[in-house]
Amino acid sequence: MPIFHRRRWRVVAVAAIVILVSALLMLIRRDSGLGALVVQGVLLRQDKDVRRQQPIAQAQVSLQSGRTSVTVETDSQGYFRIPLRKVVLPGAKLNFQFSHDHYQSFTEQLSVGLRSARNPLYVFHLRELPTPPTDGNPGTHITRITNIRIRYVENATSESNIGSITQIFEAHNAGNLPCNSLEPCSPDGHWKAALGQASLDAGVGNTFRQVRVSCIAGPCPFTRIDDSGYKDGGQKISVSALDWSDTATFLIEAEVYRTSLNSSVHHLFPVFFGRTLNFTLPANEEGVSIEAELDGTLMVFPLGPDIETSWTRCTLRQSQMADHTRVYHCELKSGFAF
User: Fold this and answer.
1) Does pTM top 0.90 for this prediction?
2) Whole-angstrom Cα distance, residue 195 to residue 214?
3) What mean pLDDT do residues 62-90 have?
4) How, if at all, do strands 121-126 and 312-318 pair?
5) How many domains does the chain have?
6) Domain of 57?
7) Which of 11, 228, 238, 323 has the greatest count of CB atoms below 10 A from its CB?
8) pLDDT tens figures, 173-196
9) 8 within a domain of the structure (yes/no)
10) CA separation (Å) from 178 to 24, 184, 218, 240, 244?
């Protein structure tokens, strides 16, 4: 076979192999879900009772995949999300490491799966660090916490009708006078017109509602009222009326409402699981404190910005529901017991 033909067949064969390999890679990529990998999961407290498997916030989550290493921190719900930008092949190893000041460090290795098993929702559990036993030590006093309840203030706005207002104003004009293009004119531009205007102020903290304006005397069919200055109410309103005939009289009537802020004190009882207590509060709560008896002595413990007291350590997360409920989870410190 001539050299030219042999070279041509070689080129054709190489091209066919390249096309076949590319198609095969595309097929594998499509079927295996190759691409950027997003690892997401949640970190929970280890306990056989699922009610005690509370989320672990502010834990360090480290993930190593090949030469890539990423570290993130769990949020208030124990959730973490780690995007890996490089292509991760099925079967690749994911090395997790978890650490938290109050829990035992934990490592685990998992493999990347295919398609639907490629991006699972991971759930990991950490064991609490053991606390030194104190009940058996005669020299150690255990403070008993009893009669616990949560106190908070809820603010709400309310409106009350404190009265109404009535006012008369006029639009002074003479009828049947040509406009001659001297504004204001009648809507058709033929007759001279006049504007009647009035303004009202309900006072600071008050608003006008249900504002009504009407023509009550004079050639009312030849008038037009502009409601743009009062239709939405408010502390200050204004009204104007166009009259293209003889003098007309107008009446304004409105209800006056006062908006006030009311504060009310509420109490609720938390739910206990082992050495933890849990409670939820509305989004507009203020002045949260825990009332409890320590060895029989009633005391009040305000929860400041660090949401911690001398006997408990709390975490706070906000619900993603529309009401934005605030969820509190508190754990007893060493030396205290319910």
Assistant:
1) no
2) 14
3) 83
4) unpaired
5) 3
6) 35-126
7) 238
8) 998 999 988 889 999 999 999 999
9) no
10) 89, 11, 19, 22, 10
Strand partners, 107: 97
Q: Report the candidate in 205, 272, 197 with the shortest Cα–Cα distance to residue 237.
A: 197
245 and 186 share one domain: yes
Q: Is the dihedral of CA 172, 174, 176, 181 positive or negative?
A: negative
pLDDT of residue 211: 93
Amino acid at 187: P
Q: What secondary structure does DSSP assign to 240-303, as a single string?
A: EEEESSS-EEEEEEEEEEEEEEEEEEEEE--EEETTEEEEEE-TTEEEEEEEEEETTEEEEEE-
Domain identity same for 172 and 253: yes
- Statement to judge: residues 56 and 71 lie in one domain: yes
Instruction: Tell me, yes or no, whether 147 and 296 share the same domain.
Output: yes
191 and 221 share a domain? yes
CATH number at residue 82: 2.60.40.10
- What pLDDT, on a 0 to 100 scale, did the predictor assign at position 83? 86
CB atoms within 10 A of CB 116: 8
How far, in Å, CA of 40 to CA of 72, rounded? 11
Is residue 135 in some structural domain?
A: no
Q: Is 52 in a helix, a strand, or coil?
A: helix
Q: How many CB atoms lie under 10 A from the CB of residue 334? A: 13
Asked if the model's pLDDT at residue 251 lies above 90, the reply is: yes
Do residues 251 and 162 both lie within one domain? yes
Give the separation between CA 40 and CA 36, rounded to whole angstroms.
13
The residue-averaged pLDDT of 310-333 equals 82
In a domain, 251, yes or no: yes
Spatial distance between the Cα atoms of 304 and 182, rounded to a whole number of angstroms: 69
Task: Report d(CA 23, CA 41) in Å as an integer.
Answer: 34
- Helix and strand counts by DSSP (H, E) for the chain: 1, 20
Q: Answer yes or no: do 149 and 175 share one domain.
A: no
Sequence-ordered list of residues with C-beta below 8 angstroms from that of 183, at least 6 positions apart, any chain: none
**273 and 197 together in one domain:** no
Let me know if residue 20 belongs to a domain. no
Select from 245, 260, 275 the last residue of a domain: 260
